[in-house]
Automatic annotation (TrEMBL):
Residues 38-118 form the Acyl-CoA thioesterase-like N-terminal HotDog domain. Signal peptide: none annotated. Residues 12-31 are annotated as: Disordered. It comes from Brevibacterium yomogidense. Residues 144-272 form the Acyl-CoA thioesterase-like C-terminal domain. This is TesB-like acyl-CoA thioesterase 2.
Amino acid sequence: MTHTFDALIALEVPTDGAQSTPDAGPEGPRTVTARTHPAWANMVGPYGGATAAQALAGITADPRAQGRPAALTLNFAAPVEEGTMDIVVDPVRTNRSNQHWTVRIDQESGTVLTGTALLARGRETFTDTELSVPQVPAPADVDITPYQMALPWMENYVFRIVSGVPTAASESSETLMWVSQTQPRPWDHVSLAAACDVFFPRIFARTGTPSPAGTVSYTVYFHTAPEALAAQGEHLLCRAAASRFHEGHFDQIGHVWGEDGELLATTTQLVYFKGV
């Protein structure tokens, strides 16, 4: 049985244009198609992390891709509609140690997402992690948090919130939680890109009240190699907080660690909100 995440990131190569061929030149746009998946639906359109995963999959599946994902930045220009999408990827520059990509998602209504990605080749250098992993109980010692909102995408994950449950107003927007996949699957950069969006909007944590909100800009910095990521345990330790709420927008800064305490990713968002 196909994992729902693998069904989500399944891509097809159109045969109706030269720029869609996978053996195009070393630079130039290539188009693949994907579809939204009902298991990854949100209140309006798909879960943003699902769309981020599809965009990154369009790059990493390209035969011209060199290196591992190091950075991904996506700007959501319009709501993604149910159905098919064209993912247009282009390796605009390939250097010895990294490769720069642009990505765009088009639907019948027009362009709904633009972005960039950086792939990098790992090399032996000075290594250190300055950010300390939070000291929290083990996943097995934290109760599963029931869903506060019946959204299909949430059923793909199991949440164990340590602190920052969005049910009452708080002076802090920070949330700390363990997250795992409902259907176990080895972690990779594409699934990590999706998981970096699991945080509910920070405005919920401050006010204790759900309100309309949506990600406008989304960035993930990946700090680990594919082999180390695949060897991670089932659970991710996720922490996020906002710096400022102002004029209908707030930022979100998040960090994701593995069960062994390795920092796997840093993620930032700019989110719009209304009704508060």
